[in-house]
Amino acid sequence: MRKTWWKEGIVYQLYPRSFMDSNGDGIGDLRGILGRLDYIASLGVDIVWLNPVYASPNKDNGYDISDYENVMEEFGSLADFDALLAGFHARGIKVVMDLVVNHSSSEHPWFRESRSSKTSPKRDWYIWKPGLGPGKPPSPPNNWKACFTGPAWEFDPGTEEYYLHLFAVEQPDLNWENPAVRQAVFAMMRRWFERGIDGFRMDVITLLSKDPSYRNLRPEEGMFSPTAPYVYGPRLHEFIRQMRQEALSGFDIMTVGEAPGTTVEKALELVGEDRGELDMLFQFELMGIDHTDGDKWRQRPISLVEMKSVIEGWQLGLAGRAWNSNYFMNHDQPRSVSRFGDDGAYRSESAKALLLLNLSLCGTPYIYQGEELGMANVAFPSIKDYRDLDTLNYHKEALAAGAGEAKVMASIHYMSRDNARTPMQWSAGKNAGFTQGEPWIGLNPDYRTVNVEAEEADPASVLHFTRSLTKFRKAHPCLVYGSFELLAREDPRLFAFIREGEGERLLVEVNFSGQATAGVAAGKSPRLIFSNGGAGGGSTPAMLGPWEARISALN
Ligand code: NOJ
Q: Is the whole model's pTM more than 0.70, yes or no?
């Protein structure tokens, strides 16, 4: 496979709203990040992905953009952005921005103009359809649902038509069928590249092309089923190839598409190296592992055997043909240590174990802010403490449907996106050192013990472990380019595999439990070369202690 910087790099995801506030308004900002560049560089990461920083009314925390070429006021200015970019570049770190072009904000001038009249020159920049039937208003054009609850169609009383929004009402879908829309987006992308950014993470990129029949979603299809009429629609690949030619080519940048509805087969169409489309994608199969029938609010326990099989499917499915991006969390998901690890007795060990696993797989690893500290889920007592519209909508809908408050809150405590969005924990001081003002969302009360300052002082912390781990991966290109072979497939506690290539053969063993468990007997005397130390002993060459994770050389 072709070798490139974005395959060898480690990505750190920054959620600016919650990272560091520099001006006391309670909201993280670009100058806040600027003050923490040395911290970020100290982690040994090579690329940062910034969640949206564009002008936005913030119905969906920046995923509703009202100006693609300006910075959100709360976050600072374009000058701050340029300073930040220069600061990262000076430290050898590349910067990837979010690209949110399936939809804009309803406050974007394009949409305002589009909704102003049926004859507006921008009418066709969004997806407008007449309603059905004689009703006033008529019924929506079809049965599509919006991701954050309710129908995907909103009736506009001014022009008496519906517009499509696969997400919130304030996030109207752009009409990619219109060549003028594509040209405007491509030109905007080029201007960001010319400004110096190093790539885009592309929001829900698999939803750009809608089936022109606008047929109903079938009863057996979930919102993001691979066959849903707006998932991998008929012109998706054509649009992406045109984007490649007109916006991406000529720049040394990386692209990673957020890809709802992607199977391994579909992934090969979008990111296969021979396809000339995108470099990488985020699949959702692993993130769906504790959902019931595609519903994230109906959770089920995670089976390690299933988790191994999902990861193996992606490792082998893309091997030699496309490149994985590996993540155990992001700003839309619960904290990884709470979901896949044990945030109680084995918090530090399991947080390290997950990081070790992530950085030992084939593909580009993504670490989300706070993951390097072992930050855990928060359990705010009241729905009033939550800010995420998805969480608030679920709470309202579930109660209206008769569910009990306690059960609904338990589900929110586990799955809410706000778990990932509580402020970064810098110190045990006021507001964890995140802001001098009133933080926009509450802190996780555990900041008094889990924070950067405390972990800097503790050589056994998750933070110090993260730094040695990134260094270790860099010193072992086998972990980047080597092959993957799963071992002990049916073992309910052990995640073990071999990576081989670049002159090395490495055995990775991770004990996903609080009990000592047998490792794999992998041929001749493995030589231990990296470990999280496990917890409470029990570690021998044949056994792993609770949540022990280790890498051994087999040659
Ligand atoms: C995916 C983003 O990650 C999420 O935060 C956002 O709400 C939706 N796309 C809509 O843009």
A: yes
60 is catalytic: no
Catalytic (active site) residue 221: no
Q: Show Cβ contacts of residue 390 under 8 Å, excluding neighbours closer than 6 positions.
A: 147, 148, 416, 417
Mean pLDDT of all residues belonging to the chain = 97
Query: In the numeric block, which tokens belong to residue 32?
Result: 């806040």
Pairing of strands 128-129, 161-164: antiparallel
Q: Are 254 and 198 in contact (CB under 8 A)?
A: yes
Instruction: Tell me the one-letter amino acid at 236.
Output: L
Whether the predicted pLDDT of 535 surpasses 80: no
Phi, psi (degrees; rounded to nearest 5) at 295: -100, 110
Q: Which atom of ligand 1 lies at the shortest distance from residue 103's CA?
A: 11
Residues 208 and 196 in one domain: yes
Nearest to 420 by CA among 499, 357, 367: 367
**Relative to the CA of 390, which ligand 1 atom is closest?**
7
The answer to whether residue 544 is domain-embedded is: yes
The token duo for 464 is 């110090």
Q: Is residue 116 part of a domain?
A: yes
Nearest residue by C-alpha to atom 5 in ligand 1: 332
Q: By the 8 A CB rule, do 255 and 243 touch?
A: no
Give the chain's domain count.
5
Q: Does residue 464 share a domain with residue 364?
A: yes
User: Is the CB of residue 393 below 6 angstroms from any atom belonging to ligand 1?
Assistant: no
Residue 309 lies in a domain: no
Are 5 and 31 in a shared domain? Answer: yes
**Tokens 């089936």 sit at which residue?**
211
Residue 160 has a pLDDT of: 97
Residues 329, 469 within the same domain:
yes
Name the amino acid, one letter, at 429: G
Say which amino acid occupies 243.
M
Q: Are 466 and 518 within one domain?
A: no
Considering 203, 343, 418, 548, which one is annotated as catalytic?
203
Judge contact between 102 and 174, C-beta under 8 A.
yes
Residues 6+ positions from 449 with CB-CB distance below 8 Å: 428
Please indicate, yes or no, whether residues 434 and 516 belong to a single structural domain of this protein. no
Q: Are 228 and 217 in contact (CB under 8 A)?
A: yes
Distance 535 CA to ligand 1 centre (A): 37
- Closest by CA to 426, choosing from 444, 440, 447, is 447
Going along 203-272, which residue ranges are E strands? 254-258
Task: Note whether 238 and 201 are same-domain residues.
Answer: yes
Domain coverage including residue 154? 109-164
- On whether residue 173 sits in a domain, the answer given is no
Furthest-apart CA atoms within the chain: distance in Å: 78
**Model pLDDT for residues 285-336, shown as the tens digit of each residue:** 999 999 999 999 999 999 999 999 999 999 999 999 999 999 999 999 999 9
Instruction: Say whether both 444 and 400 belong to one domain.
Output: no
